[in-house]
Specification:
By secondary structure, this protein is mainly α. It is built from 19 helices and three strands.
């Protein structure tokens, strides 16, 4: 039997038929091209939903464990609460002390500036004319440095020169200068945050798959700027200047997460725990227990040609296969084989056919669940179930997969087989004939005809069972 994953499509009449057939059964033309089956439907939302279901199951298991330990933890919780209150008081006291120290430092600096306003500063004397040597900032005290740098920062700020402000900000941090004395310090700090983000993106664009801590940094900044528009940290003008950076960050991270708006809101509330600040520990824990790294792998290899992509990704795919991580294999398969503009040569990977087969099975899970729930499907959906079953019913004898791959694939196919054999009896009549014919040639037309006939018979039987209403 030919590999069922590829058909021929007649270029004249559009008829699809088995790859091994020399001529079109309909018009007799030999002019055809190879195509993938139409039944493969990519549904990315499905993966997000399934991922949430799995996480909910894990959460329920964790909740049961916590309930079993709740009794003896009460005393411990009381102690923890008392310690937390003491720690909170300590933190608040430290914060107030630091604020007071900063306020005193600012007052002293302002007094110094007022006292020296009528005199020629060291910086001014150095810059009297061009014949004198340039200022050596490392030789300036903090007070002299402020006198020199703050006017320059104000000048670049007035011109909205972000790059120049960022250069001074980075240098000030490296040299431990009192950059916080600048009136627009928080604006410079935001530029510094986004420079870190851009450095991460740059490494990724060079073909580097991000590490967990780098993905955690991206998520952390994303949640830090969650309520950017409502923040009182920046002026309206600064918000207008920073908005482009925030928008780019949101677009990137939301693509990586693949969540709905309500799910993102819930995730933000979990990461902040209603405290108003992001808990970085929770962000790291989320990254370590999610498949967000797949987005980085896809993005890092997006611009590569097929040869470079295979060299980069095949070792990654090998590790996932050996670890039994079919879910992550499916995510990479979906985002490269279907979402990439030209597709990727997955079939050249050692387990390429296995991944394609499992993808077809996972794509059927929503339809199978609806059947299990007793819902009535459309003719098209029933036809999809039947065609997929017929295409894979003899997968074990197709010589496409290894024995190990067949063993791993069998549980996926079993769900489809149980559904199909429950709906239709392939041991007799037209259903048996259809099954036998499907092993030799394309039976798409016969499937549509038989499904239509089957549904008509069901509807007629229901009408016959309904009691007549007397007038």
């Amino acid at each position: 039997m030919n590999y069922p994953g590829i058909w021929k499509e007649c270029k004249f009449c559009g008829m699809r038929y088995e790859q091994g057939t020399a001529k079109c059964p309909k018009c007799g033309s030999a002019n055809a091209r190879l195509v993938m089956p139409k039944e493969v439907e990519a549904d990315r939302i499905f993966f997000a939903e399934e991922n949430e279901k799995r996480k909910k199951v894990q959460a329920e298991k964790q909740a049961k464990k916590k309930r079993s330990l709740r009794k003896w933890k009460k005393a411990l919780c009381t102690i923890v609460i008392i310690l937390a209150i003491i720690l909170l008081l300590y933190i608040v006291g430290s914060f107030l002390l630091v604020k007071w120290a900063l306020w005193m430092s600012q007052k002293e600096t302002e007094k110094w500036l007022e006292d020296t306003e009528s005199t020629e500063s060291i910086v001014t004397n150095i810059n009297i004319n061009e014949t004198q040597e340039p200022i050596r900032e490392e030789e300036l005290s903090d007070e002299e440095w402020l006198k020199y740098v703050l006017p320059i920062l104000d000048k670049w700020y007035a011109k909205n020169a972000d790059e120049e402000i960022l250069k001074i900000h980075k240098k000030a941090l490296d040299e431990n200068r009192p950059m916080y004395m600048w009136d627009h310090y928080m604006y410079g700090a935001a530029l510094y945050d986004f420079s870190i983000i851009e450095d991460i993106w740059e490494r990724e664009q060079s073909g580097e798959i991000l590490q967990d801590y780098e993905n955690a940094d991206l998520l952390n900044y994303y949640f830090m700027y969650w309520d950017f528009e409502d923040s009182f940290t920046y002026t309206d003008e600064e918000k207008m200047w920073l908005q482009k950076y925030v928008d780019e960050l949101r677009e990137d991270v939301e693509w990586r997460l693949g969540r709905t708006n309500s799910e993102l809101q819930s995730l933000y509330e979990d990461m902040t725990a209603g405290q108003g600040y992001v808990d970085y520990t929770k962000v790291v824990e989320y990254v370590e227990n999610s498949e967000i790294w797949v987005a980085s792998a896809v993005k890092a290899t997006e611009s590569m040609d097929d040869a470079a992509w295979m060299n980069k990704m095949f070792p990654v795919l090998d590790e996932l296969y050996e670890a039994g991580n079919d879910w992550e294999l499916m995510l990479i398969y979906y985002n490269t084989e279907y979402q990439h503009k030209n597709g990727r040569p997955f079939e050249l990977w050692a387990h390429g056919h296995y991944v394609a087969y499992v993808w077809d099975m996972m794509s059927m899970e929503q339809l199978l669940q609806k059947v299990d729930d007793g819902k009535r499907l459309s003719e098209l959906d029933y036809g999809t179930i039947l065609k997929t079953y017929l295409r894979y019913v003899d997968y074990a004898d197709a010589n496409i997969m290894t024995e190990e791959e067949i063993e791993r694939f069998t549980p996926y196919f079993t769900s489809l087989e149980q559904c199909a054999t429950t709906l239709w009896d392939f041991s007799k009549g037209e259903w048996k004939a259809l099954l036998e014919k499907s092993k030799k040639e394309y039976v798409g037309v016969e499937v549509e005809r038989l499904i239509h006939k089957w549904l008509m018979e069901i509807d007629q039987a229901k009408q016959a069972d309904e009691p007549e209403i007397s007038e």
